[in-house]
Amino acid sequence: MTEIPLTHVLILSSLLFIIGFVGVVVRKNTLFMLMSLEVMLNAVGVAFIGAGSVWQEADGQIMFMLILTLAAAEVAVGLALLIRMQRRYRTLNIDVLNQMKG
């Protein structure tokens, strides 16, 4: 079986992370920002899996499971906030959040 070099995995992971970061910085829609955060978390997971594969250790897979758990919690809390924001302000524009007081 052919092994993929670690540099290729890290380049892919870096590109995915940059795409996610640009999505978080550029977008105004909160839903797209959350999806970009998911892309960033998956990029970190790909890096851990690739490094664990090269070093023949299961640590990368364990870290990826922790990242998936974090992503699931982020989705649950984020979607609850989005639903509340949509009902209250009738928009998902992030600039509206500065009007929230409480």
Brief summary of the model shown:
The chain has helices at 6-26, 30-54, 59-89. The protein is an all-alpha fold. The mean pLDDT is 91.
CATH class: Mainly Alpha
Tell me the helix content: over 70%
Q: How many domain modules?
A: 1
What is the H-and-E element order?
Answer: HHH
Description:
With 102 residues, the protein is mainly alpha-helical. It has a single domain (6-92), classed as Helix Hairpins (Orthogonal Bundle). It has helices at residues 6-26, 30-54, 59-89. It is elongated and about 55 Å long.
Kindly list the characteristics that best describe this protein:
Helix Hairpins, 102 residues, elongated, mainly alpha
Show the helix and strand layout.
Layout lengths: L5 H21 L3 H25 L4 H31 L13
